[in-house]
Design goal:
The protein has 328 residues and is of the alpha+beta class. It has helices at 90-98, 120-128, 161-167, 244-255, 278-287, 301-310, and strands at residues 11-18, 32-33, 44-46, 54-56, 66-73, 76-82, 105-109, 134-137, 145-149, 152-155, 170-173, 178-180, 185-187, 204-208, 211-214, 224-228, 232-237, 260-266, 292-296, 323-327. The chain has one domain: 4-Layer Sandwich (Metallo-beta-lactamase, Chain A). The strands form 4 sheets. The chain has an 8-stranded mixed β-sheet. Strands 12-13-16-17-18-19 form a 6-stranded mixed β-sheet, with helices on one face. Strands 10-9-14-15 form a 4-stranded antiparallel β-sheet, with no helix packed on it. Helix 5 (278-287) runs parallel beside helix 6 (301-310). The two termini are 28 Å apart.
Length: 328
């Protein structure tokens, strides 16, 4: 595949809208701006069991992921939403609590079709109306899927194309890489699998041709890439089912950019299935020498701990509402 001309930008800001963790005691630092603890200026909710019967609206953490990517080029900032979290109301709630409007969002990117990245779309449409912008996703997004576990098979809720289109989402399906925002953002499409150790999600199956078939590679998994001038690539993932090392390698291959400024999102390394590849994965991630690494969502405690120990200067803990900034 020919190199893709991803234009450099001045800055990338990633705001975590939904993730597995919210810690209101975390302090801001140079690369991570946390929501203020002070209730001043924040929406209030009724709380009759207090002397002053109201509380600032708190954020919600859940097993899901959503982020807002803000890209600044030539002095102009443009925004994309990436995934929508798990619960029907979580994304809409956090947007309200953070006082973030999606009125100027120019597109929605869905990393893949698993329900912990799709569930919040209904609440978003109900509370704010479906943004009348393109929604980019892979054709396999709609597959019926299940996880074959020792205790039995767990079938995942399946996204409804008809319902999403009926709500007003403008769906675009693409397997190949896509350039967005006047070549400021690259969506990977299907990711090349090049490592020897990232074999996918072994218990994952898809319904094809009237039967359940192995689907460990989850080909609809895709990432968002930007190139910050003088700093390198910013890589944003939803679950990283393609393998986080594969994803970063593919981003470098597509763009021809060698440096990696930041890796943010879910890396899907939690649990016993992925424990055997943790050492190789962490070693490969460290070899990229990212300036910032923020493992969240499905990365898993053991992997987050290993990453934090291997890359202490680059590692920052994720939390709902945090804005991560990479600037030229």
């Amino acid at each position: 595949m020919e190199r893709i001309a991803l234009e450099p930008v001045e800055s990338v800001e990633i705001t975590t809208l939904v993730d597995n963790q919210w810690d209101m005691l975390l302090l801001s630092q140079e690369r991570a701006v946390r929501p203020p603890m002070s209730p001043a200026g924040r929406p209030q909710v009724e709380a009759p069991f207090f002397v002053d019967p109201q509380l600032p609206e708190m954020l919600i953490a859940e097993h899901g992921y959503s982020a807002l990517a803000s890209i600044t080029k030539n002095g102009r900032t443009r925004r994309l939403m990436f995934d929508a979290g798990l619960s029907v109301g979580g994304l809409a709630h956090n947007l309200h609590a953070l006082q973030i409007s999606l009125a100027d969002v120019e597109g929605i990117v869905m990393s893949h079709g698993h329900f912990d990245h799709v569930g919040g779309l209904h609440g978003l449409a109900k509370e704010h109306g479906a943004p009348r912008v393109p929604m980019l996703l892979h054709p396999d997004f709609w597959l019926r899927r299940r996880a074959r576990l020792p205790a039995g098979a767990f079938e995942l809720p399946v996204p409804s194309k008809a319902a999403m289109q009926g709500a007003g989402f403008e769906i675009t399906e693409q397997r190949q890489p896509s350039l967005l925002l006047d070549s400021s953002v690259l969506i990977t499409g299907e990711v090349d699998r090049t490592t020897e150790f990232e074999k996918g999600f072994a218990v994952h199956e898809a319904w094809r041709d009237g039967d359940w078939t192995p689907d460990p590679l989850i080909f609809d998994d895709q990432a968002l890439i930007a190139n910050v001038r003088g700093k390198g690539l910013v890589v944003l993932t939803g679950c990283g089912h393609a393998g986080i090392v594969n994803i970063v390698r593919y981003a470098k291959k597509l763009t021809g950019v060698a440096r990696v400024a930041a890796i943010v999102g879910g890396f899907h390394l939690g649990g016993p299935l992925f424990a055997p590849i943790l050492p190789q994965t962490v070693e490969a991630l460290a070899a990229f020498e990212p300036g910032l690494i923020v493992p969240g969502h499905c990365t898993g405690f053991d992997a987050v701990r290993a990453i934090s120990l291997a890359m202490p200067d680059a590692f920052v803990v994720n939390s709902v509402g945090t804005r991560f900034v990479v600037s030229a």
